[in-house]
User: Fold this.
Amino acid sequence: MDDKEIIARRVALELRDGQLVNLGIGLPTQVAHHLPRGVNVFFQSENGLIGMLPLPEEGFAWADLTDAGGRPVGAGPGACAIDSALSFGLIRGGHLDVTVLGGLQVDEEGHLANWLVPGVMVPGMGGAMDLVTGAKRVIVAMTHAAKGSSKIVRRCTLPLTSVRCVDLIVTELAVIEPTDAGLVLRETAPGVTVDQVVRATAARLQVPGSVGTMRG
Amino acid sequence: MKPAQAAEIAELIPDGATLMIGGFIGAGTPQRLIDELVRRSRRELTVIANDTARPGVGIGKLVDARLVRRLVTSHIGTNPETQRQMIAGQLQVELVPQGTLVERIRSGGFGLGGVLTPTGVGTLAAQGKRTIEIDGRTFLLELPLKADFALINARRADYLGNLEYALTSRNFNPVMAMAATTVVAEVDDVVPVGVIPPDAVMTPHVLVHYLVCKERADG
Assistant:
């Protein structure tokens, strides 16, 4: 199992039956493939769809049914199409249960940076600022490090996506929960020790008496 | 509402015009109108749109042809050429959170003086903006956007110009139809009045000035 699959499988366990869920482009999209049996959620695509499903077969691709990355998708029973104002009204208005996003940095205060690397990459924020500001629960799904350096840092050096704190960080090494007392190490991946996670993390981690093992 | 050819619409649009263009990475973008703007080389345009799709696709064609001077958008990550022109200083880009962008357009079209949003508070998106506290919560004041032309795409229109959109090709189109002086709808099909039932009309015909229909296959 590769790192991304470990992360996607663990995030999928956070989803509850009947929730409205938005998955970011890239790694978070994979969460849809690992929903536990009996858990049926409605995936929102912020370009205007509730009830998005993967394309059932290659030949069914249709230009008017796409995800927020512009790729062709399918839709399930009960799906509905909405305009961008309603789509972001759902997001900003607190009607979206969970958003799963990728991250460039998360810091000790639970702040996320994921939309800009000044002078290097200027994709723009797209829907990320609205999602992090408005969703009931924000889960960051990302690899623990990039090019050997920890993405979980004392303080974000990249521009923030929102001043709202994220609710959970899931990496291939650990599950970490931002709290008022700082970042708490909740789980480590199978075969990974607490010490290994602490060493791989630039931020200070609170380590409670019992740290679970990541499932998925 | 008048039926028109895409080429006639491109004639109406002067250099330097402000255009709202519907679509989300090309889905729901009026392709024929864009092709005509490129063919006639309408320059110094201000474009308000969710994104610039990809090079060679949708709004990306306007960027490729260097016809855009200023861009108000939420995301250019799918178009390296837009990023290149921005970094080279050839294209001014104002990045706006997507939910804020649609609300700024909506407030422009709905007669409001702006919107208050929590999105972007405490981030780069708040730079130069007023904040207002309501019930102890901080909001950004975001100002309305309007345009000279809205170029939108719909699945079908009836003879009056009532519009119906297709799935995710709806996106910004109905909101932009409210916010421009002249609204041009490029549609895939035109049907007699009544074929689109009143409950299914998503943009009422009173908003649409020009309808660009598919060119007939038999000429």
Q: What stands out?
A: Chain A has one domain: 3-213. The first strand of chain A starts at residue 20 and ends at 23. The first helix of chain A runs from residue 3 to 12.
